[in-house]
């Protein structure tokens, strides 16, 4: 089938009115239809990543379900059963995608462990190992613009899935029709019967203890207090970064208020990369006002960090090598 045939198939087979409204809104735009339906989102070692919207080449509940069905088939064929940990960030549709993935896993008799709120990607890696999961999923598009979201897959070691395992998942995905082959159940039902479980505070607290154990000079921030300006860039880092700073003795923390709370539209940082000057502009302005010792920024899923330090009366962004 060509892309127009697939587009018409979606119109015939889908009965969700919101999806139909979006599909009908592009009926006179062949370029947009082609962009959305000419190809399928590619599943690789970084999982899926794409623009939000309806179509086979877009991030939506259907493509997330398709990817999760392939992952479930891989886990069941390789291990017989198992558990999968799931985390999500502040991006638009992240929570919905995470819960849908959990529902698909549950329908395939795989237990899904999911966080109750958005969490950093490193927390997911820890949870995979701590809960002895066969895989992990993070719903995020990292530092991409707001129109994107993604689906990262991790192996049982808590690291990004290897090429070999990714190829094994792809071989399963090649047999999955996203319109008819994806198993699912109601999310609340899956929680009720125990196939979706919330990750406990014990796992979260153990993660923080593990982070603190990486200190090179424990107690030095209490002995030599420093001040910090911090921005989570409207992402998942707000609570965990502030908590770890306070627990190691950094109590003088100023937050970039416009970027403090989760917001998948990233209104003040269209490209929320903590290594880019434009994303850090508001934080650097706050630095000039409060004059901290260091400026810290994290990306939406808080697995990338940027720093700026005082230099000759101004604040200079450090490169990765300098850090």
What would your notes on this structure say?
The protein has 323 residues and is α/β, with parallel strands linked by helices. The chain folds into 2 domains: 60-206, Alpha-D-Glucose-1,6-Bisphosphate, subunit A, domain 3 (Alpha-D-Glucose-1,6-Bisphosphate, Chain A, domain 3, 3-Layer(aba) Sandwich); 215-317, Alpha-D-Glucose-1,6-Bisphosphate, Chain A, domain 3 (3-Layer(aba) Sandwich), CATH 3.40.120.10. It has 12 helices and 11 strands. It has a 6-stranded mixed beta sheet, with helices on both faces. Strands 8-7-9-10-11 form a 5-stranded mixed beta sheet, with helices on both faces. Strand 2 (83-88), helix 5 and strand 3 form a beta-alpha-beta unit. The longest helix has 19 residues, at 61-79. It is globular and about 65 Å long. The model has no long low-confidence stretch (mean pLDDT 96).
Features:
323 residues, globular, Alpha-D-Glucose-1,6-Bisphosphate, Chain A, domain 3, alpha/beta
Largest sheet: 6 strands, mixed
Helix and strand sequence: HHHEHEHEHEEHHEHHEHEHEEE
Please report the first level of CATH classification, the CATH class of the largest domain. Answer: Alpha Beta
The overall average pLDDT, rounded, is: 96
Largest sheet: spatial strand order? 1-5-4-2-3-6
Number of domains: 2
Radius of gyration: 21 Å
CATH topology of the largest domain: Alpha-D-Glucose-1,6-Bisphosphate, Chain A, domain 3
Q: Report the uncertain regions.
A: none
| CATH homologous superfamily heading of the largest domain | Alpha-D-Glucose-1,6-Bisphosphate, subunit A, domain 3
């Amino acid at each position: 089938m060509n892309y127009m045939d697939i587009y018409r198939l979606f119109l015939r087979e889908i009965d969700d009115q919101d999806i139909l409204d979006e599909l009908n809104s592009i009926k006179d735009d062949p370029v947009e239809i082609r962009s959305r339906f000419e190809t399928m989102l590619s599943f690789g070692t970084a999982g899926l990543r794409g623009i939000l919207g309806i179509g086979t080449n877009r991030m939506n509940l259907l493509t997330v379900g398709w990817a999760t069905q392939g992952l479930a088939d891989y886990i069941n064929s390789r291990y017989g059963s198992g558990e999968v940990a799931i985390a999500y960030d502040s991006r638009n549709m992240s929570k919905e995608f995470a819960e849908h993935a959990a529902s698909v896993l549950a329908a395939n008799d795989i237990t899904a462990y999911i966080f109750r709120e958005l969490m950093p990607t490193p927390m997911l890696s820890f949870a995979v190992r701590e809960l002895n999961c066969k895989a992990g999923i993070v719903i995020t598009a990292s530092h991409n613009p707001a129109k994107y979201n993604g689906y990262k897959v991790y192996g049982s070691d808590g690291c990004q899935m290897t090429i070999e395992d990714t190829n094994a998942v792809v071989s399963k995905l090649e047999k999955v029709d996203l319109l008819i082959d994806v198993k699912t159940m109601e999310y609340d039902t899956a929680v009720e019967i125990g196939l979706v479980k919330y990750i406990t505070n014990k796992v979260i607290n153990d993660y923080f203890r593990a982070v603190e154990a990486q200190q090179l000079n424990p107690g030095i921030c209490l002995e030599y207090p420093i001040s910090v300006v911090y921005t989570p860039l409207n992402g998942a880092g707000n609570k965990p970064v502030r908590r770890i700073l306070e627990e190691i003795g950094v109590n003088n923390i100023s937050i970039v208020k416009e970027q403090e709370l989760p917001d998948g539209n990233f209104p003040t940082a269209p490209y929320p990369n903590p290594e880019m000057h434009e994303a850090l502009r508001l934080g650097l302005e706050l630095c000039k006002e409060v004059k901290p010792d260091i400026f810290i920024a994290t990306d939406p899923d808080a697995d990338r960090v940027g720093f700026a330090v005082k230099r000759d009366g101004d604040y200079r962004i450090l490169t990765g090598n300098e850090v």
